[in-house]
Amino acid sequence: MDLKLELKEKLIDQLNLEEVKPEDIKDDEPLFGEGLGLDSIDALEIIVILDNNYNIKIGNPEEARDIFHSINTLATYIEANQK
Amino acid sequence: MSFIAAPHIISPLGNSVHENFERALVGQSALRLHSDHPFAPVDIPFGIITDHERSEGWTKLESLCLQSCQQSLAQLKDTSGKWLLIFCTTKGDIDRLASGLSEEVKPQYLVQKVAKELPIDIDTEVVSNACISGLLGVIMAHDYVSTGVYDHVLVLGGDLFSDFTYKGFESFMALSAQACKPFDANRDGLSLGEAVVSVVVSDKKEIFSQVDCQVLGGASANDANHISGPSRTGEGLYRSIQKTWKQTGLSAEEVDAVSAHGTATRYNDDMESIAFHRAGLAAKPINSMKGYFGHTLGAAGLLELVMSMESMRAGIFLSSLGCEAPGTTEEINVVTENTPMEIHTLLKTTSGFGGCNAAAIIQKIQ
Amino acid sequence: MSQQVCHIKWNADGLIVDGQQADLLPHEGGLKELLAAYYKSLGLNYPKFHKMDNLSKLGVLGVAMLSAQYDLSAYADDAIAMHFQNASASLDTDWVHQQNINEGKAASPANFVYTLPNIVLGEIAIRNKWYGENLFVVADSFDLERWMKTNQVLFDQNKAEAVLGGWVEVLEEKFELELYFVVKQ
């Protein structure tokens, strides 16, 4: 499956975004604040998703800020760092 | 108005208020590495009570709670009247959950078990309101005795270091790898500790063999903003302080010192600085005691209130151990050295998950 | 003195709002699906709802039903105290966190944040923008008289114009909401 679509489905499932469909999330749209409206708990949960699914460890939520900007930035980071 | 006295503290620093205060005065901290603990990671400091007595058939928390209540009651001259025991805790004996859901894991089971062993008839109540529980218990106690619902309230705060809370705070990335640095510019998270504390609140001064302080009143307020993220405007903490002025008829000018929550997470301490600034308290001496004990969760507010009572008696405001160079969004007067001073009126504040905040004022009896 | 102006009782036997009894909404599955059915029927449009644990959902839905029945908007944003009680604290959610630990899995931060019973108060406060007094008490069963006694203390101490709360209990599939709105006289 396309990594970006897979990410969208994982976010919807793990972050309980029940009223959102994968096609509602634009690849370059901000995930936090405006856009999808995720919050600090979601950020921590995405860190767990990356660890469980892609074996990627992020040690501090501050460094996650740029990586978690959008589906595009997240996918780029996973492709570069997946083990 | 109500009197507050007959305190007891059991923490890694000691088994009395006196021991705890004397050790804090010389800069000792409960936070240390534990190489032989069943689940604490060896490379992160925690404040764990390792030296304690435990009765047959009683858990560590049950034993310490009973001992602390007995120590408080032993300081009274007269125990007649209508009593309430308020147990303030976030998670009680939560590590019992590892072996499944049971009645024993519930905090009301613990407090009822303790109450049965006490030499007085006493009603029980459990306040479980995140990290404001301990202070909220004192505020409720004050309100109960002020309105005559009870004659005396024994307020008990207790939370232990558990695998449950450790794993949760770890997933929150809220733990510092070192001993926490409250209000420090380089703070990077909290440290977990444990304590069991008790105190008696009563409107009858004559029951105490020694009494130095009274509770003037307090209040709680919600941030109405986020369940875990501190408010960017410090709204709930600010409002709880404003409501405390209303409850007590005092204002910021009349406060000599503030015992803050100061968990040493970036956002919490910034939030407190904003609320204190808004409340006109930025210039007042402010401390956090998390560097001495770590964050003792539901017990924290009560622990720090009792330590503050001892500070008022001794005339020394404790340094915010761990804070070298204060640095928060708003500049506040964080005290980084033990400071001899007359503390007549003290504001105690706490904040917790669920957006809850509480504030209360205690005053020295002339 | 005080007066009870609205009362909701909701459990597996049905839903009673101010004496009007109704069957539970039809739903597939368990408590989660039942609460989702009420979310939909109330037309809440509050996506955060889906992130909550069942205890918070039950409280938030109950308050939404109550405020549809009785206008709470006349109260100042800090005039309503929230005073809730239950028997199982947050054990329903604690158990999920504990099972992760027992099975050696990573803890979920989104789950851990609900492992405190007073989070339901926070969720109600956030949704309604209420800054009032907070009190969560854990007790074996709901003693209405005692709950009212504590509310009277809040009134006598001039801490609230009204108290919203009561009993909000969830453990596994069992649930019980007994919600009151009490006004100071």
Automatic annotation (TrEMBL), chain A:
It comes from the Bacteria. InterPro entries: ACP-like_sf (IPR036736), PP-bd_ACP (IPR009081). Residues 1-82 form the Carrier domain. It comes from Reichenbachiella agariperforans. This is Acyl carrier protein.
TrEMBL record, chain B:
It comes from the Bacteria. One of its GO terms (cellular component) is cytosol. Residues 1-364 form the Ketosynthase family 3 (KS3) domain. GO terms for molecular function: 3-oxoacyl-[acyl-carrier-protein] synthase activity. Pfam families: ketoacyl-synt, Ketoacyl-synt_C. The keyword Transferase applies. GO terms for biological process: fatty acid biosynthetic process. The keyword tRNA-binding does not apply. Keywords: Transferase. InterPro entries: Beta-ketoacyl_synthase (IPR000794), Ketoacyl_synth_C (IPR014031), Ketoacyl_synth_N (IPR014030), PKS_Beta-ketoAc_synthase_dom (IPR020841), Thiolase-like (IPR016039), Thiolase_acyl_enz_int_AS (IPR020615). Belongs to the thiolase-like superfamily. Beta-ketoacyl-ACP synthases family. This is 3-oxoacyl-[acyl-carrier-protein] synthase-1. It comes from Reichenbachiella agariperforans.
TrEMBL record, chain C:
This is 3-oxoacyl-ACP synthase.
